[in-house]
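Shift notes (night). Ran Mga helix-turn-helix domain-containing protein while the centrifuge was going.
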Amino acid sequence: MNLFQLLNKNTALEIDIVKVILAAGPRISKSQLRKTLNISNFTLTGALTHIQSVFDEVKINATLEIEDVDSVTYVRVKKEPTTDIFDFYYAYLADSLEYQILRYLFHKQSFTRIQLIQTLSISEGSLYRYLNHLNELLHEFNLAIKNGRIVGEELQINYFYFELIWNSVPTNEIHALITNDRIQHTVTALESSLDTTFNDHTKMRAALWLLILQKRSTIELTTNSVSKQLLKEITRDPLFNQVQTVYLRFTIGNAQAGSSFKSVYLYLFLISMFIFDTNNHFIFKLGGTWPTPLSQIKHTAQWIVEFVTDNLNVDLDDFPENFTLRWYSVLTQLLTQIYFFQSNITFISTDNQCITQTKYTKSLIEPIIKKVLTDFSKPTISDTMKIYGYSILESFIESSHKYAKHHLRIGIFARKDYFSALYLVEQFASEFSGSFNLDIEIATPTQKYDLLVTDSPLSVSRYHFAKQYVLAGRLNALDREMLATILNNIMESVN
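Came back to this:
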């Protein structure tokens, strides 16, 4: 789910205006802004006026300035280097009636039709329209709003609320939500039991998850996402026993329905949400093997590693130990998220949600996703989860590239002088070394090259090369695209 989908047309336009201004640099002319967004001058002028008022209201050390220079009207956003522009976006989101409905459900857990109509000051027809749209968005979580409640598997409901609050509430407000002493003591107890120290980011995420488990304390666990077989595997993990002991201590004196089972939810959260807490990748290490007790996760993760290393012609023994431990942890956490948790929530505009892949990494990632969906019996994967998963898998593939046995040898020849050739070497390395395993050098007649890149087709007969590419000067966009295709084709041929 993308939170921008909760905004109305006018609000979304105003955020788009700010994004275009920021992307343009110091300033942009009104005429260019109008052209970029394909809107009228009347619409733009009204939107800019409202944007100025919102900046004044949110008080984030940022302002929208309009100035005339040589008969041209320019617009710019003036802000401090430390200003978080997302605070501006949050202000718009907070005004969204659909977002307010979700927040109402989070705090109250249920509503009546009359309650919402009065609270939001809307008509019954508007309420039904908002609820219908929310149900369309909730479908990717396998959830729905029915009879004044969010219904579905309890684990998914908890996860949805976690994603909603984490991605839509400013950090200072999340801190205010989780100041409960019992929650903070539980986070500390988890650190002590696991013999580790969470970073601030992880502490806050763990505390928020505990808050949500506590908030839904009266909900009966009539359905869940954890089969009896999975429960057997989970309960055999010593880590689970530690987590359960801490969680049950957390609920003493505050008896909750399903407390014992919710310790499973806490455990699943912990073994799937440490991807970005690199200091804690190793707390789940189980004797140097896959850091999970779940056989299906192990099987799929092992397949991914073998598939990638086979295609890259990499020997597993060539991976350093820390590299293996880190990526085993990351892959199992990613797969655990995909297996147990439906989708995720983002607050990034759709034009920023791009999956940047080389042709080669794409050729590996797509079979991996297909395998994951087959193994996990899932018909599809949500767009937001796909972007998240693709970025991690691409990072794994590119990191593994460095240990490939076959390096492409690239020769650079410039007819002008040595320094021109050296510049091309640096430019080529900057552009392609992150995606391909390359040895790049100024060409010499005694060396054989997989690819010779030159700014002249003349005087290259004395060089030995399998393929040649002629530049028309410095690397341009067309060169980058064509060279990426050539390098992909060479990689595929040697593997």
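Residues 408-494 form a domain with the Rossmann fold fold (CATH 3.40.50). DSSP finds 20 helices and nine strands in the chain.
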